From TrEMBL, chains A, B:
The keyword DNA-binding applies. SUPFAM superfamilies: cAMP-binding domain-like, Winged helix' DNA-binding domain. This is Helix-turn-helix domain-containing protein. One of its GO terms (cellular component) is cytosol. It comes from the Bacteria. Keywords: DNA-binding, Transcription, Transcription regulation. Residues 170-244 form the HTH crp-type domain. GO terms for molecular function: DNA binding; DNA-binding transcription factor activity.
Length: 257, 257
DNA sequence: CGGGAGTTTGACCTGCATCAATGGCAGTGG
DNA sequence: CCACTGCCATTGATGCAGGTCAAACTCCCG
């Protein structure tokens, strides 16, 4: 799979001019801090730049903001900085957190259909949103952009399937372990034979993500702590002490490459 | 989203020559019966045809066959005819049915990773498989093929997210109703204000798909029958008597287009 | 140094899994 | 064509993982 980060850099740069003024209008005065890597490294052609620029819709969101994007049409969103969650709503106010997304992640946010999808900010964010149909049309004329988008979709599908497996088959203990392993891989700082995590989401968000209640999440965290697999400090700091053991706990298949 | 069926027709036709001899070698002597719509209607260019043809790997599978495709590398599979299930395995022999696929469906089957994925035939099948990386490379030089593949991925992601929502939030009753609604939309024959279904999968498959045991699936089917929403005959025939009511039961958001 | 939201812990309950037995469909051989 | 047979589905009885309800605690912010 090729690099998504490159596309992020491209889009950040393309968005800069647009963003600056929008940012000023935003209540929080968030400004872009993204890197401005040379576009040339991407291999994208000039036409792509100009047309992407025309599509760009900058979104600055404050922590806790929900319905960050318009959901009357499908959107492709890039997280420039911050952290967001994608939530789906069923009837009776139940919500499922479909996923968490961080710096340089792409998100495909479908239009409201049998269930409603919304993007919510977990902390102050800088996002760039594109109408999906136009983004896709544009990607078709630029191989690199298309390739990156495809990679993203395949990865998103893969992650979603992993989650389905977890939700359908795994116990509470395994789900929490799986969640921690996944977070370690995505936003963990390497640490001894484990990782150091600073989770931006609440216990409720975690529970809604892995299909458990906050109480059960909390209890499982306690058990993992008692088992010496993790240690915690404060609400969001989690130190994974033994990643291999945690993966075992997560019910992953062992003995592969 | 554009038509996937067209691509199916294309590939069927392209595969015909290849397939015929492979079919003869197959123990079941399955032969292609697919339509041979003119390739011109697809708008795919000639180079695409020739290269797709070179990639084509015909697979004839008998009902019950598992591990239909090689899982050492990711595959793109097209169901020419029949029905298959995509299963994922966690440790301890637990399996999750990630999805059911029917005529003209595309399937992206990832290589074995943290969990193993396998395709299993639910009835005698005619399939065409391509190595994913080469298929994608090829798709990049053909806009229509690329577009169709993208549509497929977006739909697959959408369905997978719906399943995550169901597995994470819904009750047994809602899950069974959701499953039936989904099947009605995909393989149901319209019938009064409902649909007629001939389910090719066992109760176990259904249970493994929606995260329930066979007993619970059976009990919920009975309850739905007692509630007058469906009627059944034999093991596989299900008649949905009131689709709207069943959707309500499925916990879908109401009051939308 | 309060105050309030988020978290942890405890007690209890429920929905679904598990275990067990019966019932019925489909494929086979007489 | 019908009886046999084995698998699959249904139904019932019971147990438990995780949900629910409730209370104490702790972090974080003003």
């Amino acid at each position: 799979m090729t690099e998504i980060n490159d596309v992020a850099s491209l889009i950040i740069q393309i968005s800069l001019m647009h963003a600056k003024q929008s940012a000023a209008a935003s209540p929080t005065s968030i400004v872009f801090t993204g890197a401005t890597a040379p576009v040339a490294s991407l291999g994208a052609n000039k036409a792509t730049h100009l047309r992407l620029q025309a599509l760009t819709r900058y979104v600055g969101a404050r922590s806790g903001d929900s319905r960050v994007t318009d959901n009357s049409a499908s959107q492709v969103v890039l997280v420039v900085d911050g952290a967001v969650k994608l939530i789906a709503s069923a009837s009776a106010g139940r919500t499922q957190v479909m996923g968490f997304y961080f710096k340089d992640d792409f998100i495909y946010v479908p239009a409201r259909e049998t269930h409603a999808y919304n993007l919510c900010a977990l902390k102050d964010c800088e996002l760039v949103a594109f109408p999906a149909t136009e983004f896709i049309r544009l990607a078709q004329s630029d191989k690199t952009l298309n390739n990156n988008f495809l990679s993203h979709l395949l990865r998103a599908l893969s992650r979603c399937r992993e989650k389905s497996l977890a939700l359908g088959q795994k116990t509470a203990r395994e789900r929490v372990a799986t969640f921690l392993v996944s977070m370690a891989e995505r936003i963990g700082a390497p640490f001894s034979n484990g990782a150091l995590l600073d989770l931006p989401m609440s216990r409720r968000d975690i529970g809604d993500n892995i299909g458990l209640t906050i109480e059960t999440v909390s209890r499982q965290m306690t058990e993992l702590r008692n088992a010496g697999l993790v240690s915690t400090s404060g609400r969001s700091q989690v130190k994974i002490l033994d990643l291999a053991a945690l993966k075992q706990e997560a019910g992953h298949l062992s003995g592969l490459s």
